[in-house]
């Protein structure tokens, strides 16, 4: 099948579906491994570094690490239970073999800088031939590189990065690529290890015994971490997979949580809604803190709080206020957006973007998300420090002065600023949660002023956010367009989940934006967002819908909607940002926002069901 965006036709058979991937990582970067055994996305040495393998965005120019059976074979992929060790199995006429893909987590050791990626191939039955081709394309496919070979090792060198490949299999050089062919008998194995070479570092092999030990150590790391979980509910496997993913998307050195490990996977194939998600969205990361605290992972919440505090996130200040909507994983504020015209994009979905221009948008809802996460950490984690409270004070004072203005909104529209109800709602949350903290701990604050602002926001939403014509809360003040973001109203404790106005809104949303449990954010036809093309249903909204039904007491509907949503996960339990018309995953993958909303929906539905 061919795809394209008008600039040419693209052979769709050269691209795996987005959902046909698993993710591995070492808390500094991550790699996507296709169900066919190919690594088609990998940035080194960090999540936001230029790509080394990016055939997911350009099958010809992106580069890849292919490894698969050299005969026709069926494949199945799964995670080693309760870990982020990925196993891809090959079933052929003469045997069965598997690839064990993982990145050892070497936090606090000299090995951390290597970002070692290990691919261990094991024949478990019969005999099976394998073929490998390692074809890096440095700097998003724009940098030339050389290869030097010696015995079972190859060093790829570009102007900005050097990688070493070592293997127990024989290696051959083909121009700037390396390939290998070998045959395994039952019980035999081969190991490939790809390392980042820092200046002065030498390649280091990975013998069979070491590969086994590293696999066992990586399994122990993930199982020990997951053992802290307090969740014992009905959907333990899905909730724990979501938690493991959120941890995998955490940048260990700072505690920052990226929205997704990829860039420019399209929200509509052939469309232009392609964005770089390898950064820290204040909103997403703050909601992640809630999910982690719910499950008992207080150290991850503490790490994010330290990221906010130690990097002065709430003290930066800028044209859009004390916060901007996203930051680099190291806390940097400049994320210039540019395009890679030499990449054709996934299935011809250009442009491919690096950086994100939305950093300069005003999105007032982030203040509510952040202050709410501080409130929850103060309540369930550790009491915040006096310096941190001073920062919260300054932020809330700013919100009191600026809440009553238009912004770009939670969906980062590029069609101009508007008075979004969700933005007002989350400004109310920022002030209300700060008042709770001040009262509970006796902390100093201008409470009379805060209370006046909080109440003014409440009255404005109830008066101008309610559409008499639709009998529902609307997307913006004084309009009649519906928006799934208002599903947060009862979750934020702004309105009772059984209030007649809220129940009427829930019914209106169900009629207009819900399709077989899947929820659209809004209708771009009735609410232009300044972007071309349509999009799929938004998975976080679908899980918000489950939670809204749960809180409204409609448990049968909630449980059915939740179970239906689980069927849209990929074979590993992972979700991208959106679901297309025929159930395909769309957008960057896998996405933190979706998984944290799954955790929240499962937790609250479990509790309601008893």
How would you describe what is shown here?
By secondary structure, this protein is α+β, with helices and mostly antiparallel strands. The chain is 32% helix and 21% strand. The chain contains 14 helices and 30 strands. The strands form nine sheets. Strands 7, 8, 9, 10, 11, 12, 13, 14, 15, 16 and 17 form an eleven-stranded antiparallel sheet that branches. It has a four-stranded antiparallel sheet with strand order 3-4-5-6. A hairpin with a 6-residue loop joins β8 and β9 (86-92).
Q: Count of helices?
A: 14
Q: Would you tell me the structural class of the helices and strands? A: alpha+beta
Question: Which shape, going by the Cα principal axes?
Answer: globular
Q: Helical proportion? A: 25-40%
Q: Residue ranges: pLDDT <50 for 5 or more in a row?
A: none
Question: How would you state the average pLDDT, rounded?
Answer: 94
Largest sheet: 11 strands, antiparallel
End-to-end gap = 48 Å
| DSSP summary, beta strand count | 30
Alpha carbon gyration radius: 25 Å
Oligomer: single chain
Strand residue content: 15-25%
